[in-house]
User: Fold this.
Amino acid sequence: MNKKRILSGIQPTGIAHIGNYVGAIKNWVYLTERYDCLFFIADLHAMTIEYEPAEYLQGIINTARTLIACGLTPERCTLFAQSHVPGHTDLAWIFNCLTPLGDLERMTQFKDKSDQHRENINAGLLTYPILQAADILLYKAEVVPVGEDQVQHIELTRRTARRFNNRYGETFPEPKWELSVTPRILGLDGQAKMSKSLNNYIGILDPPEIIWEKLRTAATDTQRVRKKDPGDPDLCNLFTIHKAFSAPDLLLDIARQCKSAEIGCIECKKMLYENMMQELAPIQARAADLEKKPDEVMAVLKTGAGRCEKIAVAVMEEVRKKAGLR
Ligand code: AQP
Assistant:
């Protein structure tokens, strides 16, 4: 039986962080066992914010080696760069012509990013979710594993599939989003989403001493004022991160001890640090090894794009025929 196809992506802006890892990447690795998995580096999406062209390719390679080191190896999935498959932008144009402007203006990410980048509110920032719909539907992916911040965009993708099908005939499935167990990680300030551009993150490849320093000073349950005050793990961003790295019985213990003030935040953070490093240390070692082999990393992306191109060409042929272009 053919496996269902899933697709998801990550932007090559900076080094991927713990929010990306527990909100998306870790789940992607797990899903490779059940699905035909396509994962891509969203190098076209990331052009919507200011970037340095001379460093961009290195950022793409760094993101790819991080994903491979996390377990997204070519044996398990197809990894590629968005700009290597021209079908993404071809299909995006057709979807542009089907999407009401009001739908795009309502997107939370557009509003947030327009606030963050007031000096560069370009059209790509607005049409970003259309390109995302094209990324997904170009491969007729049925499931899209993402963090909570992306659900609104996947809803737009579903509407786009419906609009295309109504206008031109049944073509695309309406993909479903799939959240990980930790779909929303806040930054170290405990306020905004953990995000590369807000610089409130722990990087997957940060050295251990930096990770500890960031954890040690990270905001916890803000209601807890002194060590002897009971905490509330349900309000604590660090407990959410614990859920991704620590075993269920330890989590139960920590929650109980936190509520009864048997342990303070620093003990909780130490346990988190140890469990986090147990998982991240082998990833960091593999990433360091791949850093010496950029050609190998590029070869993985090229092979991935080769496979995707075949799927994309067939779907675009079908789309052009249905839209009256052929
Ligand atoms: N804080 C988060 N918690 C849970 N999941 C998250 N994701 C991102 N941040 C969190 C998920 O990671 C996947 C890839 O993210 P991305 O790099 O494409 O998107 P992003 O949301 O733009 O990431 P950043 O760090 O916030 O980048 P900047 O600062 O450049 O905008 C997605 O599945 C996303 O849901």
User: Anything to note?
Assistant: Residues 5-182+294-322 form a domain with the Rossmann fold fold (CATH 3.40.50.620).
